[in-house]
Amino acid sequence: MEFTYSMPVKVIFGEKAVAKNASEFKALGHRALIVTGKSSADKNGSLADVVKALELCGMEYSRYRDVEPNPSVENVRDAADKARSCGADCIIGIGGGSPLDAAKAAAILAANDIDDDTLFSGNFPARPLPVAAVPTTAGTGSEVTPYSILTYRKINNKKSVGSPSIFPVMALLDPVYTHTLGIDATINTAIDALSHAMESFLAVRATPAIKPAAFESMRLIAGTFAGLREHKLPTPEEREELLYASMLAGTCIAQTGTTAVHSMGYMLTYYRDIDHGRANGLVMQGFLRFLEKRTPKVREVLSVMSLGSTDEFGAVMDSLLGPKETLSDDEIRLFTGTVMTSKNIANTAPQPSAQDIEDIIRFSFRK
Ligand code: NAP
Ligand code: ZN
Questions:
Q1: Residue 361, CB half-sphere, CA atoms under 13 Å: how many?
Q2: Which of 170, 183, 192, 201 has its Cα between 20 and 30 A from that of 318?
Q3: Rg (Cα) of the chain, in Å, rounded?
Q4: What integer is the mean pLDDT of 114-136?
């Protein structure tokens, strides 16, 4: 056996995680920029808890609240300008994956006056500001990953910044913050976390060390599907399991990266504004169908979710996702061509051809 495993994030999980561990923020710096989306952090209690903790620590803070879903390079540059103008020496991201990713990118750009190519290279002249992450969705696992996924209009796609230097210093996870998520956001983010766990296990870069977390994550998420299929919001216990499972899945992709599912998903989000988790969910059955003839690992994935076949998995996804969007032939060709240029293709085992990707997309959007 041979592998590398790196998880430098201090994870603090549980109800009132922020209030109970307020003094932890002191280690970050003296003046924080709090990075959030428009309003959810004001409503779910997370922002108030963090502000109170900073005040207890005697830290100063400013807020940037303009993070858009799927943040663009322009958006995170704007957040970094704010960090510089207020003299921030640390960043606290509160929200779903979008504010957490924006916080990481702002931490890089506040410390480095660099062009887009250097940003995406993952090599920065100066160390990014330290980041703390407070997730309020149970999906991306961004609180424990070294990635910031940005909308990059120059290439008409989403693109990942990856560097060990943007692992958050700490992540504080309180499941109560996720209680305000509606049914669609709950389903989409749960599917995103499931895709992380599944893809990490199926990736070329998979290692034995990620398997226990990936399987526990898939098992827990699949356990919530019976209720979600009937559009019942999760119980507090299930909310806790979903947040735990999404964090576990994040620790897995932090080691392995993602695969063709995410590349296909980015196209659906960029061109059709389909939510990130939903976009992955739409192509997952097709992806598993492609792989099942080629690797015994698909059986293991189905079995941990107590499912017998990829058709059964597809039926679960269909009932969770509802009516599907339609794609034109031109879109399918464009998406296939772009997906084939992504580095995730080389991380998919076995590697799909352009025809395979086109077949997966066609199958996923069949009428
Ligand atoms: P999101 O884009 O962060 O948020 C989507 C919506 O949910 C926003 O309108 C947000 O409102 C709202 N929201 C957030 N928390 C809420 C809560 N507790 N209650 C009610 N509404 C809430 O969604 P996401 O799915 O978590 O993140 C998706 C992004 O993460 C994508 O850009 C994706 O590429 C990225 N991602 C990153 C990684 C990584 O490793 N870095 C992994 C997977 C995905 P506000 O705008 O008002 O806050
Ligand atoms: Zn994802």
A1: 30
A2: 201
A3: 20
A4: 98
